[in-house]
Structure prediction request, 200 residues.
Amino acid sequence: MTHLTRGIYRAQLAGNVPDAALTLRHQRFRALRGHSQPANADQTDCDRFDANCRHMLIHDTTTGTLVCTFRLMSFPSGQTITKSYAAQFYDLTPLAALKEPMIELGRFCLHPDCHDPDILRLAWAALTRLVDAEAAALLFGCSSFDGADVATHQAALSHLARHHLGPATLRPATLRPGIPLRPADQSADQIAAILPALLR
Prediction:
């Protein structure tokens, strides 16, 4: 995929992550969540996985502003899935036997001042094109909740555990102590409102 456009937006895949994407990631994953210390002194968000990923960049062509970014790491099969970002936190052994290609999606974020739904439409269209081109049978990745207060997110996590668990034969296990879950007392609509947008 060279590029894809919708309206004023242009999606393009890059092998190296530009500074603008690292800055946007810092703004979304750290600054807006109240972290007092940036990931780096120059207020960027980067890690050792970036070098092994391709990076989707969506720009507003009228201003040049980067309005969305996410990264992708491709795996020809499950044999190398332990090299993924998610493998730091989850036992992915159930997926290791899969012989089909798969893609890990991560660091998906939108510019905080940009709310045009065409941005997400273009992001999913670009992702779909990559999935089709690589015949990927599985997309996986981690989705962030704001903060680390279990009580704040317990209802949403309980709802996900009750209604959205994957098949037992493919279900990853956490590498850290699990969160005690309780029945959610909110309605499905209330739960949906507090779920991270990517999970919705």
